[in-house]
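@channel anyone free to eyeball this complex?
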Amino acid sequence: MALIEIDERKPYWRYTKWQMLASVVPFLALIIVLPLYADELNARRFLGFPLGYFLAGHGIWLIALFTMAAFVNRQDAIDHWHGANEDS
Amino acid sequence: MSSPHTTRLVNPRLGTYFGIFASAFVGLFLVLLILEQLEIPRQHLKLAVLLGPLILFGGISVAASTNNSGEFFAAGRRVPAVYNGLIFAVTTIGGIGLISLTGLFFLIGFDAWFMAIGIFAGFLIMGIVISPYLRKYGAYTVPTYLSRRFESRSLRLLAAMLFAVPLILLLAGELAIAVHAAGELTELPHAVIVTLLGATITVTAVLGGMRGIGWVGTAQAIAALLAVIVLAGIIGVIMTNLPLAQLSYGPVLRHIARTEEAQQITGSLQGLLAFTLPGPAPETLSNRIGAPFGSVGATSFIMGLLTVMMGVAAAPWLLPRCATTLGVYEARKSLGWAIFFAGCIIITLSALAVFFRAIVMSELVGRTQAQLPSWFERMMADGRATVSGAGPELPLNAFAFGRDHVLFAVPEAMSLPDVAVYLVIAGAIAGALAAAGATAFALAAILAEDVYGGLRYTTTTATARLHTTRAMSVIVLLLALMFNFTISSDPLELFLMAIVLSAGTAFPVITLSIWWKRVTTAGAAVGMTVGFTLATLLIFAGKAGLVPAPLPTAGFTAALAGAISIFAVSLLTPVPKRAAFEAVRDMRIPGGETVYDREMRQLRFRERART
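replying in thread with the prediction:
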């Protein structure tokens, strides 16, 4: 069994849920909204690309990568803070 | 963080081994390049391109063979995150993604991004919402996890039967695209090609199980990655003077847009629910490449990307790989790597498609039929492309290209040596084999562990489980080969159907089983059944023309209906037992022993005590 204290379980899960929501909800909002404005954004340029095209392709990929990296880092900190990590 | 103990488990020579493989793969093509210049007959070169990588994959399969059940079913739970991420990415994209997605980027431009965004988002959701918890549980298959989570043997059988359907569809699709790619390379009879590719997958799955699929999959992923990255680098230098084509194709895209404007190609904005994806037959070019919603309407685009996201996140052919990492932290990290590698591949494919569109604009559009270049005439002669109209200046929409031939036509149109075309084909075959191998093993494990094992009332030994899965792997591959011989379907359509069924059937139940303790066995069973039934009905209704945008609608609606059913039935049925709550709480804590390993250990102790 995990070595996390019984009293720590609820706060640990509360923080984990918020971390999940904070990572997933903005990303979902972005991938739903951004493609709808791609045509308007295409009037601008970035690195030579039409901006809408760039953001829908490269942009969403980079944001997904950043979101995942930030989540791994923050969730690991939550795990350690509550003694739920794999080293304990 | 991985502990010092787990760090020691990782083979420190993995980098060396795969470095040797990458060198051998590159070396093979450099030798072939020299032989091409020495005018060695093309048939010999083509055969070497087909057999060379297959022999390398076979060698790795033999080296990765195992009789240990932990190794066979979960690769010893010691696959480093970066390798796992690479396999995740290439297994998801597969040959269908490499070949058909490039064609989609070329033919419908921006609208093809719904698949790519769906894959990125699917990995993100899998990494945050699903994979850490499935890794802590550690079950070898998804139905096994559900049966233990809900303590129900009938749920295990139901899940196994429902999840087998998308697996069969995907396996058939990947095998079909692998055969298509190999057919571009060699004039060997169809039966020989199918048998050769099927035998390669069977040897890998039978000898090494998940371990073999993992390490051979890594080699196949490296081959696929090298093929597209090297090609894009070369073409990038030729067209933009920069080897980083992924970031330098913007000006080419804008140049195409200006030419499209000059040619008065406006591309009509489709209705919100339009969903017209090109099939395998040559399709005309009528959309502007950078403008959205010319083939896929705005609503279909969003529903489509959400369907792909849910389908990838809960894919029964991908999730068993979560159990192979060193721990929960590594499981999360591996999905980060998966996003990285998937992005590298998909953005490279989009760059290749844009380069090919630029070549078409400059070398074909505005010419007469007599002025068409030799590479296009070869494509026409093989039925890979067509041209209609006979005016003095042929417009863009006079040309039609086969979706699944675009990737291979790019190096040909750039007048690169034939070996460059062979390299891309070898990469595509490797990608298809990686996806087909993972799918075949996932299906075999479900049939052996959950259908055969789930029906038995006595526990079997680890060796017997291993042999049953091996036998099932052979049966699954034989069935897939028979399917390939008898039925001809569009691989991309099969892939999307598998994704839709995965989204509708697996996503709601897997997600809610982790995040909502109150889900009951009845709720899970009804949710899966409703999702599967609705997805299937909507797919068939779409085929009959009764539903607009059948695939995105089916996936999105089925997932929603499945989730609502789970909520409704769970709230109407008695609260689960305290033990079920404890199991969920245990699964949610990263620390401690893997739940499935502990349960198996306890089962073995009980068996020993009884005998």
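from a first look: The mean pLDDT of chain A is 93.
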